[in-house]
Predict the structure.
Amino acid sequence: MKRIKVMLGDITKVEADAIANAANTTLLGGGGVDGAIHQAAGPELLEECRMLHGCATGEAKITRGYQLPAKYVLHTPGPIWYGGNRGEEQLLRNSYWNCLELAAEYDCQTVAFPSISTGVYHFPLEKAAPIAMQTIHTFLQGQNTVQEVSLVCFDEVTKSAYDKAWKNLFSK
Ligand code: AR6
C-alpha cells in the first residue's frame, strides 16, 4: 500500500532509499537543509556534485549519499518566490515530480523530502504544502516503484502546514 507520511525531524538522519535536497542551481552547497546534507554526507558529496555542472530550477540530479543513512540524494533547486507570477508553482511541482522520477528510475522504494523552497527561497508555506502533497500523490498513483514518501519537516509550523494539506487530500 503506497503512502505519504508527514513527520518532524532532521532529514540527514532519515533512513530512506533517497532523500531530496533543496539545492541551488550550482549544486555546490549552501545553507539550510543543503548545508546540513553536505555536512552529514561528507566531502565526497561535493566532489560528485562538482561533476554535475549545476542543475536548472525544477530539474533534479542524483548522487550517492556517502555518509548519510540514505543511499541516494536527489538534488533539486526549487523556485525562488518572486510573488507568484514567474511560474513558481509549476516549478515547485517540477521539483517534486522530477525527484520522484529519478527515484523510480533508481529503484527507490522510500523517498524523503524537506519542504522545498519554503526557507531562504520564501515560497509561501500554505501554498507550497498542498502543491507538494498533490504532486506526490499524483506521482504515486501512476507507478509502482516508489512505495512511501515522507515529508520531513524541521519545525512545527511547517509540519502543521503539511498535516493540513494531507488531511485536505485524504480525509474527504
Ligand atoms: N532537515 C529537514 N529540513 C530542514 C533541515 C534539515 N536538516 N534544515 C533546514 N530544513 P531551505 P530553500 C528546512 O532554506 O528555501 C540553501 O542555501 C527549513 O527549515 O533549506 O529551498 C540552498 O543552497 C525549511 O523548512 O531551502 C539554496 O541556495 C526547508 O528545510 C537555498 O538555501 C527549506 O529551507 C534553497 O532555499
Observations:
- The helical segments are 32-41, 43-50, 88-105, 125-141, 156-170.
- The beta strands are 3-8, 18-23, 61-64, 72-77, 110-113, 148-153.
